[in-house]
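yo

u said u wanted the structure for the complex thing, so here. seqs first:
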Amino acid sequence: MATSGPAQAIVENAVTRRAPIVAAEMPRHTGFIRMAHWIFALCFFALLLSGTEILISHPRFYWGETGNVNTQPLFKIPIPSSRKLVPTGYGYTLPDQNGWSRAMHFEAAWFAVIIGFLYVAYGLWTRHLTDSILPKKGHLTLSGLWASFMKPLRWQRPAPEEAASYNGLQRIAYVIVIFVLFPLEIWSGLALSLGFMSAFPRSVQLLGGHQSARTIHFFDSIALLLFLLVHIVMICLAGFRSRTTAMITGRATATKERV
Amino acid sequence: MSNLSRRKLITSGLWMTAGAAGLGVAAKLAAKYGLVPPDHGGLYGPGETLTYAAQRLLTKHSMAREFSRDKISPRPFQNELAPLTEEFKKLQAANFADWKVTVDGLVHEPASFTLADLKSLPQRSHITEIACEEGWSYIAEWHGAPLHAILDAVGAKPEAKYVYYNSMEPDSWDSIDMDDALHPQTFLCYGMNGSDLPVPHGGPVRMRLPRQIGYKNLKFINKLTVLDEAGLKKLGNGCGSIACQYGYAWYTGI
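structre next:
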């Protein structure tokens, strides 16, 4: 390092000028997490769209093993149907879109499950799951959870330092989504497959029957949709541009947080 | 974004090459073990192939769930029917005495079976659920001649890979692989809940595949053809089922 004179001054200057910016640039999400996030987001959207389309062909739900228009439903969704023989009270039938909907639903489910498994494996390997997602002892105080719950309700943006890690409430929500809602959605979805249930009949029996599995699949998808809506609202509250940039490029500057 | 170093480029290049080679090997193996469905092309081909391959690995010999008699649905739902053809009505007027199912293709002795012929084969029954891709389902007792007994009678050749089946409903045909064709619960079904199969449920004869969705269980079967891979490709749209034309899958174990 035998530089001297103006050259050294420039180097030092450059270092000191850059330093605060580097400090403010917090590494947010690793490359794998970002890739997994967007592939999963695409799959989730495809599943939501195709699932809704399939639902339209029979917007009635049952409990137990069987159910059809000759049996009493548990409840009906008051929408028109894409099938003539479903009594909906509407005087018209929507076009049948189940062909591509089913194909899209199953293909997106495959990719979502594959990326989901990779995410959990990666999270265990890098300790991302244990360090950043699982709640720690300090996270589980009632007052802390209550404060985290009330803050967004008062439409208060998170402080810049809160961007570095998830709070207790977020961690609990993520744990429920990753380890309860998604596994149940996969299970109840598989339990609708005649092939799968022939190999694993217990998987259907434990859910209360074929039609019960379908009803559970529906309610679980509503729970996941609610999580998605809250997720998007929270991102808007925290700063849509900065959080979305962070999930695309992996970086976000704390100073940009309030923009 | 200066972190795309040469080293990273080389390692990711290697990973991608390994991945592509792995996919290539997987595709070869899948084709060799009969894990690729006829409709494996197109945007949804990968999903169809994953589903079919996974289910063939898991369910080759699994049996559809059977239920006790008290689970039989009191009012089975008769789905929509296309208007019956004149030819069908004529057969119906004669109480299907002249109904025939012809069996040809890769068999030693092509033959045709009247309803009486089918009924003279050992009758099998199962109480199973029929489920529609729309989401509804019902349980009934189904009686029929196992398809494997019919294939045995005509002597299906070893190169047989698929069985094509045609319905008298216009533009209605489909096919299944030999795993399903030889499965003990696969029937040419002529009875339901102790009596003849009613016409709205597909009588006199419907295909009954309890491990696949309703639309694969075609009604009014009058023709079977045993085919190999090339024979199936030559049929209609080449993907083994009229359903593909409307965007529906060939394999419906899901």
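Chain B has two domains: 1-32, 39-77+107-246. The interface with chain A takes residues 1, 43-44, 46-48, 50-51, 55, 58-59, 62-65, 67, 71, 73, 75-77, 79-80, 129, 131-139, 210-213, 243, 246-249, 252-254 of chain B (CB under 8 Å).
cya
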